[in-house]
Structures are given as structure tokens and as C-alpha cells.
Amino acid sequence: MNTGSDEPGEATVVTDSTKPDGLGSKAPAFIKKSRTLHLSWQVGVFVVGLAVVVLGIIMLPLPGPGWVVIFAGMAIWATEFVWAQLVLRWTKRKVTEAAQKALDPKVRRRNIILTSVALVIIGVLAGVYLWKYGLEMPWNIKNQ
Asked: Residue 23 has what pLDDT?
């Protein structure tokens, strides 16, 4: 067997080159020692992460921080699963790119102009409605 050294008492450290740096299970060492305990740990992490993600999905149409809760569930999964760690890395990269793009002066100026135009249009529509119907709710308006 080739260990990378000709010296009899010297051993080389073999690293797992299939996983990029920082990826893999963050379970404590005593849990990783036992395959059954580690599998149970992974199932528990998956179930807790799934519950948090489902709660976040429920919060999307309801009041509440839906996306934040979904990403919290992904972070729970990322403590144990490489695929979730890769998804979080990709998401962080995209959010950072979007934030940098949004801070670009040309983009900010465009967004301010579009927001101002939209507010003027909404103001004009509200003014026309108030001029024509007053403070009457739309469902109480009779055909005239």
C-alpha cells in the first residue's frame, strides 16, 4: 500500500477530496462514532429542518417572516447535509450580488424614478376616485 512515504513509522493524512472545504456533518464527535446514532441524528435534523421550512412556507401568504424562516430551516439542514450547505452558499452569493446591484447609483436612481411615477399614478387614481365617489367604499357604490 502506498502511503506517500518510505519511512516505516511515518503515516500520511488522507483527506476526503470529494467534499469541498467546510462541507459535511457538524454533528459532535461522539455522535459520529456510532452509525446508528449518527443516522438518528440526521433524521432528527431533517425532521426539525422540514418543520421549520414548512412553517416558513405557511407564513409566505400569511403575516410573518416567511422567507427568513425558510432560510432558517435551510440553515438547520446545512448543519448536517452537504446539499443544503451548497444551496445556502449559492443563496448567499446571489443575495450579495443582488445587494451590490441594488446599491449601484444608476439602479438606485432608476428605482427612485419608477417608485415616484408609481406613487403619482396611485395618487391621481385615488384623487379621481375621491372626486367621483367621495369616501364611499367600492362595494357600497350603487350604479348611477
From this structure: 74
Quickly count: other Cβ atoms within 10 Å of residue 77's Cβ: 22
Cell of 76: 438547520
105-133 vs 82-102: helix axis angle to the nearest 10?
A: 80
Per the CB < 8 A criterion, the answer to whether 49 and 74 are in contact is: yes
Nearest to 74 by CA among 101, 104, 54: 54
Residue 97 clears pLDDT 50, i.e. is over it:
yes
What does the chain come to in residues? 144
Taken in order 26, 29, 34, 37, is the CA torsion positive or negative? negative
Note the Cα 76 to chain centre separation in Å.
11
Lowest mean pLDDT among 12-16, 68-72, 94-98, 135-139: 12-16
Biggest CA-to-CA distance, the chain: 101
Say how far apart CA 115 and CA 117 lie, in whole Å: 5
Tracing cell 450547505 back to the chain, one arrives at 85
Grid cell, residue 51, equals 418543520
Q: Indicate the SS3 state at residue 76.
A: helix
- Residues 82 and 94: their CA atoms lie apart, in Å, by 18
The span from the CA of 27 to the CA of 45, in Å, is: 10
